[in-house]
Structures are given as C-alpha cells and as structure tokens.
Design a protein that fits this description.
By secondary structure, the protein is of the alpha/beta class. The protein has a single domain, classed as Rossmann fold, CATH 3.40.50. The protein has eight helices and eight strands. The longest helix has 14 residues.
Length: about 240
C-alpha cells in the first residue's frame, strides 16, 4: 500500500536511478556512504571513484569493485578516527550519501562530520527527507515502509545554515535531499548541536501539513532539470 502511495505522490525515477545520475554527472573522485546495507547504492560509484562505505553490520548482496572499501563500524567511530581526512586526500569528500540511522540527530551529526571533510564543490545527499505521512515518519518504526524523522534535518539546516543550497528531489520512495555550497570551516552545527537537536525534536510532524513542498524545498524529479541544477555551480 505505502509503495503505491509513494509512486503516486512522487512520480519519475526512483532514488537509486537519481543517485546513479548524480554519480554520472559529478564524476566524484571520492565518495562516502553512511549506511551501506546491501551495497546496491555504493555499487553505483564509478570504478574510478574511491568509494568508502560505513556500516556496523553490512549485508552485502551485490558484487563490489576494487575501488570500494567497506568499513564495519558506526559513523561516530569512523569520524573519530585520526586518519579519517587522509582517507579522502587530497580531494576531500566530493560526494556523500547519508542513509544510516533514520533518526534526525544521527543524520544531522553525520552531515556535520562530512561537511568538515568536504572538498571544494562537494555535495551531500540525505535519503528519506520527504516523508509520505505521519505514521511512516515516526521515530519508532511501526510500519515496514519507514523514513523516520530525517525530514527534520532539512528544516534545521534551512533555518540555521541559510548559506547552504538545499533541494529535496521528489523521488520515491521518500525523497533525496541534495545539499551543496558546503563550508568545511563552519563550526556552527558542532557548537550548537545539542540545542538544534532539542529544538527540532520538539517540532511535531504537523508542521509539514502547512506546505510540505515549500518547507522541504521540493525539487521536480525530472532528469533534465536535475542535470541543469547539477551544472549550476551556484546551487
């Protein structure tokens, strides 16, 4: 039922196809993925891309190239490594995909850590930022189809980091937020992390009922328009 609802609400290519298109267009030298699971997403990275996937319990079910390294640990432990920046040197992280814990505070913490490692012109993608409805967006999973409350990350970043360029691609099943104009020197998220988390955990899902597309800055799931957006260095 939920899959049919998502297909009706978010027509066009699925997020895997959108992610593949982003890889083809950006041709990143380095790629970081938080939450590998089966490996199907990280397998989309080009053979020339140094791809690192972080997951404490991956369940790889597809062949992965020699360019792919799976690190079996939590993202917090990974970012605490003293050599983490060296793993992406000299380019920094050029493309990242956050699809780990489907909870706001984890996704926001991962975003802040990746931004510090980002290279010039880097891009961070966050899955599950355009929820289908309240029930499938609960913090505690009560449905098979589940996005959690990652949508809060978009609202928090739009308020506290207006310098970022954020577009939530309306791709099924639950959207894909693209964040650009990153600033590795920014310390705002790290310094205010606890306060930001407390602020947005107090915000009820009902806030989206007012105008979900506007609040999440929904972007049409159209390949041609996405290509134009990716080509625009100012966005």
């Amino acid at each position: 039922m939920h899959e049919r609802m998502a297909a009706a609400a978010l027509p066009g290519p699925r997020y895997e196809q959108v992610l593949a298109a982003i890889h083809r267009h950006l041709k990143p030298r380095t790629y970081l993925e938080i939450g590998v699971e089966s490996g199907k997403a990280i397998a989309l990275a080009d053979a020339q891309t140094r791809a690192i996937g972080v997951d404490p319990q991956p369940k790889i079910s597809v062949p992965l190239g020699r360019n792919v390294q799976i690190v079996r640990t939590t993202s917090d432990e990974f970012f605490a490594r003293p050599d983490v920046a060296a793993l992406f040197a000299p380019a920094g992280v050029e493309l990242a995909f956050i699809d780990g814990q489907h909870l706001f505070e984890f996704a926001l913490r991962d975003f802040a850590a990746i931004e510090r490692l980002a290279g010039p012109g880097g891009t961070i993608l966050l899955h599950d930022c355009y929820p289908l409805d309240r029930r499938t967006a609960e913090r505690e999973r009560v449905t098979t189809f589940w996005s959690g409350d990652v949508w809060r990350v978009v609202l928090a970043l739009r308020k506290h980091r207006p310098d970022l360029a954020i577009h939530t691609i309306a791709t099924r099943p639950t959207g894909l937020a693209m964040v650009r104009n990153l600033d590795p020197r920014s310390t705002l998220l790290a310094e205010k992390m606890d306060a930001i988390v407390a602020e947005w955990l107090a915000v009820d899902y009902a806030v989206l009922d007012a105008d979900k597309p506007r609040l999440l800055n929904a972007f049409p799931n159209d390949p041609a328009r996405l290509a134009a957006l990716l080509a625009d260095k100012k966005q």
